[in-house]
């Protein structure tokens, strides 16, 4: 089989060695004669996996001791609701910063649950010279005004990433679904970080939540037990049956990341990959990207062909060369190359070669 480079935004490609190991262990995990999918989540082998995976994640992200790590269900959208249910007790209010599709969806879910009056929104993207540019406000005010400020450091659909740390006197809740572990961050600057697993962590079905302990003392509205952070924390993410196979794969991804030099090493490669691709886009008039340089996503590189009637041919010819899932999100169109941690530099090099040749042929 020839090499396929998968640029899907999520579920995204997983590291090949992780999949190979999973394949090898599928029928016999740890000499038990059965797969990891078929054992109790309360038995010693799985508990050991769970404990080690948390340890590895804490090491990878340098998570301080006063944070709980929760392995939950429901994906990013599950957390859109869980955050509201966990923190906006009676009369609690929150501020949502809007920078693209996913932060807007998070705000819409919050409004759906607690009503417009409890949710303030602030658009933080401005067009400068036709490019999307993020302007981060300094958010200072009365402690009682907002229970939290929510934002999305990487907008998967729009290809907009916010690298600066948000300055806020209110607790910061961040949807890191598509940027987690792609670069080093200071966890202590956040009250809550959540991420659906299907980009940089593992397969869909698992959702990570990293929550500062003091947040768990806030009033509760009426979260369903399954989405209650306090219950998840008290039960070590085993209140009910967790998505065990997804957790197992995530645990293997954490080991792979540690072996590869951790998040700092990933960041270095991710910068190189993104620079290579954006350089190709910028140097050929055949392609364009609509995001200001400092807010260009390192994980989701969006670009348009100058002549969109060539979109179909671009996708077809790319696929024939093993470069798959480059179609942009249906809402914004164009192309999108998602280049998460598992995408090797060679994949981006191959894409750039293809893009250069396609532009030369069709210009
Ligand atoms: N937030 C972000 C930043 C995302 O990219 C996505 C999915 N692509 C979601 C939330 C929604 O995640 P899910 O499909 O797991 O609910």
Give structural attributes.
single chain; 363 residues; alpha/beta; Aspartate Aminotransferase, domain 2; Aspartate Aminotransferase, domain 1; 2 domains; three-stranded antiparallel β-sheet; 18 strands; 35% helix; binds 4'-deoxy-4'-aminopyridoxal-5'-phosphate; pyridoxal phosphate; PyrdxlP-dep_Trfase_major; cytoplasm
Describe this protein's structure.
By secondary structure, the protein is of the alpha/beta class. It has two domains: 17-259, Type I PLP-dependent aspartate aminotransferase-like (Major domain) (Aspartate Aminotransferase, domain 2); 260-362, Aspartate Aminotransferase, domain 1 (Alpha-Beta Complex). 35% of the residues lie in helices and 18% in strands. A seven-stranded mixed sheet has the order 2-14-13-12-8-3-4. A three-stranded antiparallel sheet has the order 15-16-18, covered by helices on one side. The radius of gyration is 21 Å and the shape is globular. The mean pLDDT is 96. Bound molecules: 4'-deoxy-4'-aminopyridoxal-5'-phosphate. The site of 4'-deoxy-4'-aminopyridoxal-5'-phosphate has 11 residues, from α3.
